[in-house]
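Catalogue entry: protein

Sequence with per-residue tokens
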Amino acid sequence: MLSDTAIAQQVQSRPIGQIADKLGIEQQSLLPYGREMAKVNINSLQQPGNKQGRLILISATTPTAAGEGKTTTTIGLGQALAKLGKSVCLALREPSLGPCLGMKGGATGGGYSQLLPADRINLHFTGDFHAITSANNLLSAVIDNHIYQGNELNIDPRRILWRRVIDMNDRSLRHIVLGLGGKLQGIPREGGFDISAASEVMAMLCLASSLDDFRQRLENTLIAFTYSGNPIFAKQLQVTGAMLALLRDAIHPNLVQTLEGVPTLVHGGPFANIAHGCNSLLATRMAQHHADWAITEAGFGFDLGAEKFFDIKCRLGGLDPQVVVLVTTARALKFHGGTTKDKQEGNNLTTLRCGLANLDKHIENVRKFNKQPIVAINRFTDDNTTELALIKAHCQKLNIPSAICDHYASGGEGAIELARQVIETAHQSQPYRPLYRLDLPVEEKIRIICREIYGADDVAFTKQAAKDLRQVQQLGFAQLPVCIAKAPGSLSDDPNLLGRPRNFNITVRNIQINSGAGFLVVLTGDILRMPGLPKHPGAERWQLGEDGLILGLE
């Protein structure tokens, strides 16, 4: 099969104005970035003729490091619905440069189910990540300058919560010392960098319901404490107006297209293992506003992205998906059943049967939110048909609808069966049920997620976590939802516990207050907010061709 780049070269993409016309977006709301991309002003949400489209959520079983094709499935399903004559719009996250240049590669789908222009989307796109990075680091610079200039607010340098960010995987920046070099270079203190996707600015952008709401979130962000323990919020440094100015264009969703011309809004990109893992609320609402069917995804497995989608994004944004699709692969299930990475090819029904326990747990988790899933069995080119048939038979035994999907090799045509099942299932949907009440104690909310979704026996809180809990209560933030940061490759907080782990506890080491975003970040196990690069990062494969094309972005 041809490479993704070669496939994309065979397609003449449509002018972005024609894609906007499919959604009925007025030209005055379109902010073009060349021929193939545009931003859509959020004022388009006030256009008459709101469709209130049905929402489809794409999630997955616990993935391998390479991912199991949620984005590719989202695109393939969208193209299939369009082939069936449906009005459809996708709402996806923006890729982060760190993973693109590191281990995971691009995030625009693949084969005949990919976004165009993939190279621009995966690189700098319309500059949203740069705007978020700049706004975040402006606040960091102003905090250190305030201390240097006399520290009128009496900020304790040892208790600054706000960290710098960069859109790159760089482990050497996790913990650093700032201000070295003498009196003129600032006040020395410990600090560090997170990846831009973990910035609270990113989370705020993705959960803001309007420009004014975004402003209030920026102003209400907890950034530090004084020497006497009083909280300091961003508005006290009087630069949130400048931050919002840097983010003026970033708040508007980006419009692109799939290989088959399906409109796609790509906006925001918080990581699901260290943030809430969903595209922007504004883009999702815009997709529903302009199409009869809106398809979105949540990062990693259902236990990470989709739990946060329901308990954070749906709760704050008033969303309720009519359909939940669980993507799985024979590769992932065999891996969780005991097949090593170097022996994935070939028929191995024994480990596949063991790995089905992981699928079973995710199906149970979907039902905890009062939803019935559809299982999309994403076919890889070297998959064994006997193994795929076993997965489908297992779903049938559980009375769960499923479809073997070949959208990577066949585009929308390869997901027609899945699309028909989605249409049928949407009419049977019941309102979603949150997993926990917001008025519960924070530790109880954490325990409910860990026990119900991960399958843990209990939760262990370190001394620091217990201290953080007391601070959350004292500052009045105990009513916020929780965003648990944990290993994406396991249902537990230990990446080595595969399949459906049992008889384990989750260890909470820290709880961070993201008052602007509107949730508490619960750090478990060894999870990091700044990834590192593998021994041979994907950047080694990238080349700039003579015709200006990016090569190696697969």
